[in-house]
Amino acid sequence: MKPGSRALGVAESFPGAARAPTDDVDDAHFSTDPSPESVLCGAVVRADRVVDGLAFETCTVGGDDATDAIASLYASLGREDVRYLLVSGIAPAWFNLVDVERLAADLDRPVVSVSFEESEGLEPALAEQFSGAALDRRLATYRAAPPRRPLDVNGETVFVRAAGCDDDEAARVVRGFTPTGGRPEPIRVARMAARAARRFAGD
């Protein structure tokens, strides 16, 4: 990965009472009284760890607008030099599922979802929390997602879904943007910034 290669990392933050016991959920939580919106941050980071831009959006907690919110966040930056989109999980904001295949097609960029915990999948949790059309929509998006594959990064295991590129390229991207530890730098920066923005807003 060339030092000047840029990726947009996307992560989110919203307050909640307890960690959701599922995969593909980064800073998402169950809560009996959740905030109506989750803060999304997009961080443009070069492979040499230089932060090169930030943008913010919101999506609805428990809604179905995360994919559109991420696309809007990308568009707001106006950065044609961003080569890859790295998304933290696929279920931000309490199962507001991200359609990574649609994002890759709409943005004309490879999209790589990275999660950090082993799991048997989201379907049992979705069936527990939703029903009817709301469940059907989420199951359709989840089942259409690319397969989740383990990847060793600096001696740690992360779990990767890739759209718009093959698994080998996705592995190179994740490793190339992860100089230390197991969390890609664009996602790490985006997560910190999302948390700071939410706290600044007083949530």
Folded structure, characterized:
The protein is an alpha+beta fold. It has a single domain (6-201), classed as archaeoglobus fulgidus dsm 4304 fold (2-Layer Sandwich), CATH 3.30.2170. 35% of the residues lie in helices and 28% in strands. The longest helix is centred in the last third of the chain and has 17 residues, at 185-201. The model is unreliable at 17-23 and 26-34 (pLDDT under 50).
Helix/strand structural class: alpha+beta
Taken in chain order, the helices and strands follow as EEEEEHEHHEHHEEHH
Going across the major beta sheet, what is the strand order? 5-4-1-6-7-9-8
CATH class term: Alpha Beta
- The geometry reads as globular
Reported CATH architecture:
2-Layer Sandwich
CATH superfamily, by name, is archaeoglobus fulgidus dsm 4304 superfamily
- Uncertain segments are 17-23, 26-34
Binned, the helix content reads 25-40%
User: What's the rounded overall pLDDT mean?
Assistant: 91
Family: Belongs to the UPF0215 family.
InterPro entries: Endo_dU
Pfam families: Endo_dU (PF01949)
Protein name: UPF0215 protein C457_02421
Can you tag this structure with a few keywords?
UPF0215 protein C457_02421, 9 strands, alpha+beta, Endo_dU, two-stranded antiparallel ribbon, 35% helix, seven-stranded mixed beta sheet, 203 residues, archaeoglobus fulgidus dsm 4304 fold, 7 helices
Short description:
This is UPF0215 protein C457_02421. By secondary structure, the chain is an alpha+beta fold. It has helices at 66-77, 92-95, 100-107, 123-129, 132-144, 167-176, 185-201; strands spanning 6-13, 18-19, 29-30, 37-46, 51-60, 82-88, 111-115, 149-153, 156-163.
